[in-house]
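Entry:
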Amino acid sequence: MTAAFRTEQRDRVAVVTFDLPFESVNKLSKAVGWELEELLRGLDANEQVQAIVLRSGKPDTFIAGADIEEFLQLRSVEEAVRLSRDGQLLMQAVAESKTPVVAAIHGACMGGGLELALACRYRIASDHPKTNLGLPETQLGLIPGAGGSNRLPRLVGVRAALDMILTGKPVTARKALRLGLVDEMVPESILLDTAIVAAERIAGGWSPKRGGHGFVASVVDGTPLGRMVVYRKAQEGVEAKSGGNYPALPRAIDVVRCSMEDGMVKGLAAEAQAFGELAMTDVSRRLVEIFFATNALKKDDGVPAGSGRARPVHRLGVIGSGFMGAGIAGTAALVAGVEVRMKDADLSRVGRGVKVAIDVLAERLKRRRLTHWEFDRQKALISGTAGYDGFARTELVIEAVFEELGVKRQVLAEIEAAVPATTVIGTNTSTIPIADIAADARHAERVLGMHFFSPVARMPLLEVIPTDRTSGDALVTAVQFGRRMGKTVIVVADVPGFWVNRILSPYLNEAGFLLEEGVPIDVLDRVMTSWGFPVGPAALLDEVGLDVAEKAGKVMHQAFGDRLEPSRVIGVMRSDDRMGRKNGRGFYFYKDGHKSGADGSVFQLLGVRPQGEVDEQRVRDRLVFAMLNEAALAMSEGVVRTPRDADIGAIFGIGYPPFRGGPLRTLDGMGAAEVVARLERLAITCGPRFTPAPVLQEMSRTGGRWYPSSTAR
């Protein structure tokens, strides 16, 4: 086997470079762990070596984490506990090495990679923007299992450690330095030399001074009573945000508490046991599947290999300077780093749009995710115009104008007249078929849909929709540019509503019927947030905008008939000039843009009396099964290419509960026979809109499923 580590001598310091063969990033596995332990034993026995510097041979990555493939091979709690204990023993060997180890960190230092760095005697990070440090295990339904749950709170304090572990979010090198997670931060160009000097000093007997995070930190993190307050607050926050659906979060708090109050020996035992038990839960299995699915999508351009070639995009045109257009422009400048030219009918609207786009950058600056220099540089990428000057140099134009077929056709004609025939044109629409928009296009082969979700800066999904005439080059260009913008991209069929809004429509319609029956707004939403959605259907309608929902509902009703006939709720709300959050009038009250209580006057508009007692299980069933049935029907029609794309689209597009794996995973978990039986009962009481999809009826007869049973964990 080709070695993962190579060693070179710098005077009396051994520089160990981790460069995993045949992989783009470094990952920790059992084999890598055995090799590293053997290497450390050899260096400890070498009298010519007084210290070790550990660095990465990969560009912009220190260590990406553990090899998640090994998690999928676990078949019992005992196996998972043993995997955790093996990781702990590796880190213990690093921490207790007679020859002190200094970590020289450049690029991503995640999961097991950070646990390895924590076990080193000293840590130096480069100041590069790609240097980020984090423990994302809770995002996989796990906890840090190789000592990280024990070492991190001892280094940075309980509050900061729990924040990193419970959110799973990485911190920049600058913040890591402020927290005490790293000891020094230097430019990448001098990282190795600085680490060698530090290693020599430590070998000579020097010990770094740590701690001193201030009086408040010493009182809170440094006393049992203060820590108890932190544990309680963390527990309350976890219960409020997760609704008890993610067991790794409370277990992480328990392990940190055990370690800090009862000592590290008991803490490590608790960590391994918790890791082992969590690894066998359905929640962890679903989250790991999502991890692999999203990674696979990063390599999927939506066309067979060799049938499409992306055009490099350096300049982006955006037509429409409203909320969506500005969001696209700001995100493209921020994440993709391209020049963006915005266009609208008059300069005052352009100016407002440019400001909103720059606000996307300003938010990052405020949160210290950008330096002032980076903010100024990226802000300079955004410009605006009331004409089409500058568009002749664009490689990609995205139209984000009013959701009206006639308007979009007119704008498309204007774009074609202003740009070269090679420029790819994307239309941002939530429901209108792209072929209808491109019906009169001169070069329909370069037109496709690029459906972003609102708010663009935060929503991770992009649906790319080719027509029958879209070229492979145009499709690959759009997909790859979407990924450059930081989006998870799925390619979907050109049908009304595409994938996400197709399965969302019956769900929101059913919410309207329930409101017509007097189900209180807060009850309606609570039922679905307790099931795992980030917001309930009424709050979601307010966020989307009732004007947008009204237009989308009409398109879907026209396309699919009575089955997707909307309730009268949206029409009634719109007749009262309610648009949701955007004008502060919707299902909820809003103050300074923030949602407050539910607006009971909605029921006066509807002319119904709110119910006093509600069968919440029945409310949940009607909402959930409306979506699941539509997902099965749409999948059987080929709206998405694979179950993977279907589930990732639902999770990233509408916040479908990740721990449930997506609609098709949910259907497989329940079994088609059970789903059909429950739909048939709903059809009897609620009407033919709940008639089971033919594909579900067939699966019920044959025992079919969406995923092979070997992948169902």
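DSSP finds 30 helices and 22 strands in the chain.
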